[in-house]
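Need residues for this backbone.
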């Protein structure tokens, strides 16, 4: 075994290690968020269709493998190869757990959103036939870049040898996400009803979530591309690209778990409507004697459908959604 190559004098080692370390740490943090979201999904929607459950649990298994590979990368760079410049320059298995697996997850999530668009309005098939090829192409070029990077065995040389792989991968992701956000927003806003405030409120929430999550993933892709071009010859672009995969996975789970908030809002509205009706009937029957006491008992009875555990899960889902949006 050849002797390790030490860090050169006056060399800023943080410029090499910081992107790898921060990318790995944020990746693990978002994996924890994903696990909690899967738990929320499991206890909240046990009667979902089989293919939806397979998608959720398949993503969890896939992300668990990716996190294990990321752990192997960090172990190789900062433990086995501590102080060895060859280890820090070697991507190890990161070409597979970052561009390859990230592109496959983004393809899966974008295909799911295309399915939702098709369910909402099948006249948008032409747009789906635009988004799917873009998503497939970005995945193909990301896989090609991963194979090339692993073959060369150097972060910078591998990325700079075939820059078009990185360009197509990141730009393709951003374009697909923007098209999905625009299509979903147009479909949902066109379904608004001027005489139904609750329906409009629900649709507004869904539109906001769709735009924010897709804007987040598209923004990270463009941000990675900007760093790749602006800081050419460095590995700073690795930090946001390591995180991208977990953003897509959490976006998928947010779209599933968001139904819990909407369901609780619907239950609350129904309870409020029932209480108002009972109050009005009691007022007609005996406005002076039974107005307060009868309304109090009916309120306790009718608010029960919004259970304490469901409210807790709803609050947790809301907190997680804000965490993912602003990571």
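Answer:
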């Amino acid at each position: 075994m050849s002797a390790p190559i030490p860090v050169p004098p006056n060399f800023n080692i943080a410029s090499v290690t910081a992107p790898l370390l921060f990318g790995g740490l944020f990746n693990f943090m978002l994996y924890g968020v994903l696990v909690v979201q899967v738990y929320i999904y499991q206890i909240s929607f046990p009667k979902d269709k089989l293919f939806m459950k397979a998608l959720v649990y398949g993503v969890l298994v896939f992300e668990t493998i990716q996190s294990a590979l990321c752990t192997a990368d960090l172990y190789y760079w900062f433990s086995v190869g501590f102080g060895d410049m060859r280890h820090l320059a070697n991507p190890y298995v990161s070409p597979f757990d970052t561009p390859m697996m990230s592109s496959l997850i983004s393809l899966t999530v974008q295909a799911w959103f295309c399915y939702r668009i098709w369910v909402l309005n099948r006249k948008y098939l032409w747009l789906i036939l635009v988004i799917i090829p873009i998503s497939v192409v970005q995945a193909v070029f990301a896989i090609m870049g991963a194979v090339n990077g692993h073959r060369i065995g150097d972060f910078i040389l591998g990325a700079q040898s075939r820059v078009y792989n990185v360009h197509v991968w990141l730009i393709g992701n951003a374009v697909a996400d923007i098209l999905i956000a625009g299509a979903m927003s147009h479909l949902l806003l066109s379904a608004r009803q001027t005489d139904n405030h609750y329906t409009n409120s629900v649709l507004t929430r869904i539109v906001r979530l769709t735009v924010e999550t897709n804007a987040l993933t598209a923004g990270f892709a463009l941000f990675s591309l900007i760093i790749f071009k602006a800081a050419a010859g460095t590995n700073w672009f690795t930090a946001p690209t390591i995180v991208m995969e977990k953003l897509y996975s959490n976006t998928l789970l947010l779209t599933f778990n968001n139904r819990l908030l909407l369901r609780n809002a619907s239950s609350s509205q129904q309870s409020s409507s029932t209480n108002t009706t009972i109050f009005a009937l009691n007022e007609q029957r005996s406005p002076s004697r039974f107005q307060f006491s009868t309304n109090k008992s009916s309120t306790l009875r009718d608010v029960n459908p919004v259970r304490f555990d469901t409210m807790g899960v709803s609050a947790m889902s809301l907190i997680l959604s804000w965490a993912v949006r602003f990571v």
